[in-house]
């Protein structure tokens, strides 16, 4: 495997190998929740990753304590990244999980560097930092604590209900810096969920997490992503999803239509040919121009979701893909008006 060749852009030095073969420990656990999953434990050399300048992301830095994801979402854009390590982007992405076991201590050291300027750090934008592995490795408490101690702004996007374990840490961090939390719920159709997101908590459980965060004073937005063409975009499906998001007390809803980058596209289309062969030709036409659905389709979905959101009393996020600030105790809450979100590349 090309472990030695993988390089990233650290905050404190030039490009360097992320880890070498001598730093890798391979583990398997014979427990039901981890059966069939192999963990590659590594000691990373950098944990702060600079987002490429050409990216459409509304942030510049990310932290990703894991590579690969047992959520096994058939559409996940991050599948391609497994090929950088000579790992399979299909089943391998779902079952070969790279764990950066020194992520908390490494982040704390990098945040303390004189070169670090305290920029916003986004988490959960590549693979989910609250996937099942986090229940065993517990990297996020150390990561959040380091960010809290340095008063460094950050945001988290997740499908994992395990985030509730760290609720107290999130509240503490919100006392000293800007913190944002978003939960991803693209649909509430249970049959669709079981087939395209088989390793995730159900949409209902994710919305329960939104409700719990909100009840504890943590404003939580919902990224309604992905809206899956011809499978999750019927008016009644959109209405049911937005209604459930509103009922959960979400501060905002931001719809994002499915996009299919290389790596994810091949895996998703193979799944589509097996489960919905009658849709293959429609998808080939809809995504004929590349990874994104046509703008007219994206705009139609966005407009419809925003109309439903207004009907149910919630609004769009304050900026494209943005995260609302967690309320600080004693501080009045405000929600600034924002422009219509555009299609991003989060999921």
Strand % is 15-25%
Strand order of the largest sheet: 5-6-9-10-11-12-13
The counted number of beta strands is 13
Order of helices and strands: EEEEEEEHEHEHHEHEHHEHEHHH
**Structural class assignment:** alpha/beta
Largest sheet: 7 strands, mixed
Residue-averaged pLDDT: 86
Which blocks of ≥5 consecutive residues have pLDDT under 50?
A: 1-19, 318-347
Distance between the amino and carboxyl termini: 26 Å
Characterise the protein shown here.
This protein has 347 residues and is α/β, with parallel strands linked by helices. The protein contains 11 helices and 13 strands. A 7-stranded mixed sheet has the order 5-6-9-10-11-12-13. α4 packs parallel to α5 and α8 (235-247) crosses α11. The longest helix is centred in the last third of the chain and has 18 residues, at 295-312. The chain starts with 6 loop residues before the first strand and ends in a 35-residue tail after the last helix.
